[in-house]
Amino acid sequence: MSTILHIDSSVRAIDNDNPSHNSLSKQIARQFVESWQETSSIDEYIYRDVGVHPPQFITQDWIGAVFTPQGKRTADQKRLLALSDTLIDELTRADIIVISTPMYNYGMPAQLKAWFDQIVRVNKTFDFDLKRGDFPLAPLLSGKTLVAIASCGEFGFEEPEIRAKSNHLMPHLRTLSRYLGVETMYEIVSEYQEFADDRHQASLTQAFEQAQSLALALAQSQQITHIDEQLV
Ligand SMILES: Cc1cc2nc3c(=O)[nH]c(=O)nc-3n(C[C@H](O)[C@H](O)[C@H](O)COP(=O)(O)O)c2cc1C
């Protein structure tokens, strides 16, 4: 069984009249999904473009609803949590999570952060217990694989490169991935978009190739797992 949850978060579309305006991160993510489909079927494919359709920001009332015991929530509180419930249900069903994101101001877009704020929720995706000492939060989901795909205008964001200390995108996704139940994370990054030179072309080509080869490898390993399950 493979359920893929695909979250795109660039505010740019993928089908603009001028193709040079198309989102690169969305195109690389699409390459991943299409390459997967060439090898293996996807049992369930859940797609959200949070860049174009952002989830609501959480509010004080939202937090109040989260901390109200489920059986005591008012109709208004249930309504406030409805989107969060739906997004968490989508996450829970997924084996593979594909998140594509641009780098905006050295981090993730506010729209993608809004999605995380809706789903990283106490007693749903993590629980909190002071008996655990200095690390009271523990994820409730497990066994998921994350493919994180990013496009940046500048370059050199990994240690020991020149902008490693300015990278608040992948390190943030790595930290949050734990609360999605992620146990294996792959990262594909295209850089140099703002330089529009050969380095950008090379970086973009490499990202497309990585998306393709990773999709083929993961799709095949899922097929093998599926066959193993049938044999048991
Ligand atoms: C609002 C905004 C902020 C950006 N901030 C950064 C940045 O901090 N660092 C960087 O390397 N590129 C930055 N960029 C460039 C984007 O990361 C780059 O254009 C990327 O390809 C956008 O992703 P997309 O092609 O999927 O839309 C920014 C672009 C925009 C529109």
Structural account:
The chain has a single domain (3-231), classed as Flavodoxin domain (Rossmann fold, 3-Layer(aba) Sandwich), CATH 3.40.50.360. The strands form two sheets. The protein has a five-stranded parallel β-sheet with strand order 2-1-3-6-7, with helices on both faces. It has a two-stranded antiparallel sheet with strand order 4-5. It contains six helices and seven strands; from the N terminus they run βαβααβαβββαβα. The longest helix is centred in the C-terminal third of the chain and has 34 residues, at 198-231. By secondary structure, it is of the alpha/beta class. The protein has helices at 24-39, 60-66, 75-93, 110-119, 170-177, 198-231; strands at residues 3-8, 44-49, 96-102, 126-128, 137-139, 144-151, 182-190. Helix 1 (24-39) runs parallel beside helix 6 (198-231) and helix 2 crosses helix 3 (75-93). Flavin mononucleotide binds at residues 10, 12, 23-26, 102-106, 151-154, 193-194.
Summarize the structure.
By secondary structure, the protein is α/β, with parallel strands linked by helices. The protein is built from six helices and seven strands; from the N terminus they run βαβααβαβββαβα.
Question: Which architecture name does CATH use?
Answer: 3-Layer(aba) Sandwich
Strand content: 15-25%
Order of helices and strands: EHEHHEHEEEHEH
Care to count the β-strands? 7
Mean pLDDT: 96
Protein name: FMN dependent NADH:quinone oxidoreductase
Enzyme class: oxidoreductase
Organism: Pseudoalteromonas rubra
Function: Quinone reductase that provides resistance to thiol-specific stress caused by electrophilic quinones.
